[in-house]
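Example 3.2
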Amino acid sequence: MKMQSNDSYSTEVWQTMDAAHHIHAFVDQKKLNAEGPRVIVKGEGMYLWDSEGKRYLDGMSGLWCTQLGYGRRDLIEAASRQMEQLSYYNMFFHTTHPAVVELSELLFSLLPGRYSHVIYTNSGSESNEVLIRTVRRFWQVVGKPSKRIMIGRWNGYHGSTLAATAMGGMKFMHEMGGMLPDIAHIDEPYWYAHGGDMTPEEFGLRCARQLEEKILALGSDNVAGFVAEPFQGAGGMIFPPESYWPEIQRICRKYDVLLCADEVIGGFGRCGEWFAHQHFGFEPDTVSIAKGLTSGYVPMGGLVLSRRMAEALVEQGGVFAHGLTYSGHPVAAAVAIANLKALRDEQIVERVKTDTGPYLQRCLRELFSDHPLVGEIQGTGMVAALQLADDKATRKRFEKEDEISWRCRTLGFEEGVIIRSTLGRMIMAPALVASHAEIDELLDKTRRAMDRTAQSLDRG
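Structure, written as tokens:
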């Protein structure tokens, strides 16, 4: 039976209308128009349905964001109530509203005590866009205006707006007019691909110390901040060696460079802690948030500031020349409140840490450690990656790894599971509310897709 959003439209009609007017993200639009996009019409719990009635277990939480899954009545009702009471008002004109005030109180009850203020945005890209100006403004206020340069990492991802793209390290995005001055990069801590004969610990220290070399080359009086994801998300769900983050923090403190954590993916329970930097054991000066803040039900993001930064900006900064029409939107704030209360009151984050996260990681390793295509398994909590390898013993990667991982991802859709492929790594990040049975289904269908991929390469 076909499931249609409108009885008068078939899948083909939806696809034709889409092709006529819509440019999609990160895709060859001409090829997509020829094959027709999948039309998703319904979501409930861990599952999605397309317009042909096929059901998929969403192993990627949408785009790492639906922490509570689909169709939560408490979030839907929170949005409805807020729309009836105050559908919109802005944060200009010396004005606030109860929803954003209450959200801020709740948010800082969940954050470590070193943070005190937040600037609300509408997405992770905007949070990182705001980051650059806010960091530079902080240094102006404290009398060090030459500190302007932001250092990121190659293969890091911080969004698709211009400055966020430049700060990220995706070179193919830079080629599309996405580079700016006063931005620099160091290598990513991707041991499997670049570690050579070094141990993970040695490699982690080497990568971290590149930051010190870069700061010294640019001049510490010119470097404003270092920005990085605690684990790389869009770049392949890459976890750095354990030696990496302590050394990064030491270097930032030594040279008075702000340490800026992009928690757009890692925040709100993904690693079994409220924020991923807590899992990795470092203390950033800023925390960029979005995605899991509202479980993706409505757009919302933010830039969280340390007390040191906020106090300087508030007490010495004068007019803060920044604003967004939808910053602190009342409906988004109301949904965020309901979402954070559910994560807290239902002890979902704690369950990820002590129950479902360890279960996923254990089962993943039991099921895939001996797979002929898998060279390494990384992850914690409700996020994981399978590294494809042509030769496990030498860590040799496939020559056409992107094509092979894309094939596996496509076969996953055929098996009824949504997983992601990135440059030879298969990624999964299910909703935090996943049960053991749903985790079993995720892994079973992923294994089938991997087995079919191996068979296509005569590795089965």
